Amino acid sequence: MFARRLQQLNPYKPGEQPKDREYIKLNANENPYEPSPKVAEALKNIPLKKLGLYPDPDSSLLRSVIADELNASRGVLVAAADQPELPFKITPDMIFCGNGSDEVLSFVFYAFFDSDKPLVLPEHTYSFYPVYAGYYGIQLKKVPLNADFSLDKQAMLDVDSTGMIFANPNAPTGIELSIEEIDGMLAKYPKDKVFVVDEAYTDFSGHTVLPLLQKYQNLLVIRTFSKSMSFAGMRLGYAIGNPELIKALTTTKNSFNHFPADAVCQAAGIAACSDIEYYARNCKKIMQTRDDFSAKLVAAGWQVVPSKTNFILAAKKGFSGNDVYQAIKKDGILVRYFDIDLIRDFVRITIGTPEQMAALLESMLKIK
Ligand code: PMP
């Protein structure tokens, strides 16, 4: 009854959503602030008849609005002072939209990575990547992180690979490589292999590798509306790269589902892009809350990995990550614990509102 390939699947596990009580939910890197009121307005105004018709299969208006927004903002919502200007204009044909960046990533794995050589990635990075590799029968070469959790760039380049992928800043460590470091890697990487940088968390770091698209035709950048744009429930992600790569993703999409971004999603996404200042303000608040909360934990004797994202890894000597996770859950707060080497002693905490983080701090300081 079941295809043999089904037995090979090893599905990704998202953060839990227990229903037994109300929790402060800090376990899925969601944004604690609501989407812009302009999104509510757009949703109210969608003519019902639009839902009876197929949406624009290529999200044309949304793609051009995203391109405009990236051009206006140096490519990142709260650009750091040292983030260079984009040395070129991003055009809509450089953008591909999908049903969450998870789906965009799935198309990327299908379109660019062959099975004759391994795909190279850090041993610890977004845990969905190995799931896609299993799904498409792509071999993997996982390169261990350095002791300080940074990427071992040379070891990754030393692999004879079909492509390269990592998140920057990386998940679940929160650590980022600089644009110069990624430039150095791209300079040494074969030009006929796709080099993917997943910038899901870039709006919380202030840095993006988008300026490098001018130099490297094989660079593909993945973005999501789920984190900085408060859209995890809406499902909208995109890729940015040279038009040839975007065409390959469109061919892949049209061989699977013509309409990954539905009419509601496209209208809401366009409205979200019209209120960028609102999201930039929220990102700044989250970055500030992250830094304040991290400093308080460190002052209380916790180990915190310095993060450039909307989450942190934290550990307390003498306690496993699971101990900490369980203790916090008893207080009605959910964080995430990964039972994997290297980070088994840590919990991953999504940054919420200052009020949520105050409640969490109180709970964590009881762990002695
Ligand atoms: N990339 C990374 C690094 C992530 O952490 C996530 C969130 N789980 C995603 C992509 C997927 O985000 P989404 O599908 O919500 O756009």
Question: Overview of this structure, please?
Answer:
36% of the residues lie in helices and 13% in strands. The protein is of the alpha/beta class and 368 residues long. Helix 4 runs parallel beside helix 10, helix 5 crosses helix 6 and helix 5 packs across helix 9. The strands form three sheets. A seven-stranded mixed beta sheet has the order 2-8-7-6-5-3-4, with helices on both faces. It has a three-stranded antiparallel beta sheet with strand order 9-10-12. A two-stranded parallel sheet has the order 1-11. It contains 13 helices and twelve strands. Bound molecules: 4'-deoxy-4'-aminopyridoxal-5'-phosphate (PMP). 4'-deoxy-4'-aminopyridoxal-5'-phosphate binds next to helix 5.
Strand and helix map with partners:
Blueprint: H1 4-7, E1 24-25, H2 37-44, H3 48-51, H4 60-72, E2 95-98, H5 100-112, E3 119-122, H6 129-136, E4 140-143, H7 153-157, E5 163-167, H8 179-188, E6 194-198, E7 219-224, E8 237-240, H9 243-253, H10 263-273, H11 276-299, E9 303-304, E10 311-315, H12 321-330, E11 333-334, E12 347-350, H13 354-365
The protein binds 4'-deoxy-4'-aminopyridoxal-5'-phosphate (PMP).
